[in-house]
Amino acid sequence: MTSRSLLLLSACLLACGCGSKSSRSGATTTAAPTTSSTTGTSPSSNTGTTTTTAPPPPANFQPVAFTGLDRGVSSPRGVNVGAHEVQVASDADWTTFWPTHSAVITPPAVDFTRESVLGTFMAPTPGNANGTQVINVWRDLTSDDLRALVREFRQGAWATATVRVTTTPYDLVACATPVSGQGSLTVERQALLDFEVLEAGADNALGVNDPAYTGGLQVFRDAAAFNAFYAQLHPGVRPPAVDFQRDMIVGVLGPHIPRFGNSVETLRLVHDPAGNAIRVRSRVNPYRGGAAPPPAVEAPYQLLRVSPAAGTIRAEAEAALTLPTPAGGLARLHTGPAEARVVRDAARFAALWAARIGGTPPVIDFAVDQVLIAFEPAGSSRAITLARAVQLEDQELAVTIHTQLGALVRDPRYALVTTPQTYGPVSFEEVDVTPRP
411 CB contacts (<8 Å, ≥6 apart)? Predict the structure, then answer.
């Protein structure tokens, strides 16, 4: 799925741009009904950027900033305890807890005078690429109880059919301690749905005689509905075989585009049981070749094999942030691979600056702002900048990093921007924007 992985602190991945890409780096699904649900024969477009965001929490809830501590796929607690959440509020409890979770001798540093640890653990789950992540945390201002949104990812049945391993994913974060102590914890779960591209192309017969056709999203949960749709997509062509006992099909359909070489790319599918919805984040990528493309009218699309989930289907809402001009320079102390982070407190920022760059860090007001910072790997000769950020639903932020071949300077470079404080994970995607001949 990615060609370059990164060390992340409170991060995941995604975003948009042109050129080649690589990533610097989800609650359980419910049984799907056997009927199909679609957006119609001429569904509304899911391209472009909408300006709406997820509804705010109830008035008595306050978002809690948190920082990732440890996230992975193998914890003894998942084996010994099963699926569960934990809260740790003191150094003594942290010292007792850590050996039950990890063989690493020294746990991550936590300032328990102002922070507590929240952790979520999955039970043993078939597959080698499962995962779980804390998405956001809210505090009840009346009771000081915490409410967390956790997103889990389970590999699809087609992916685990020949895999004989199980994993026990986990995520540990440090968040502000409630005023009167730990408080109780309530967890809401979502699923990041596994999918694979069953078919993709740039030519289909949908809407050929409909000037209002703009593409959209469709979901199919039985063979009859899918076969009828496929007959419209490709008249006279036999549809691919699908096992609807274990899978469903999602169609991500682009609009008619009067250019050649376009493609649809699906970034993620999130199943939100609370909203009874499957949210799809996708984009239409333009032609990325060298010479000018020949004239043509295309309707790019993807058909996805997806882990089954109930609910209607819709596009993910997102809103672009205005970024200041990034700061940057050489990071001569950075000796590791490419890396991207979100930093939300002064102590962690000072430690990162001392370890990677050296000297005196810039002054940041972490009461209102946060830092997004990305590093090229040691020995790289590429220029780097933070080009774009969009706010997704559930308070997530997706950031695009642009890199470009530059002068042959062997010290790694960094790029840094400040944005208003956000409270969910930040994901990063790298796009190579080096001009092509």
Answer: 330, 331, 332
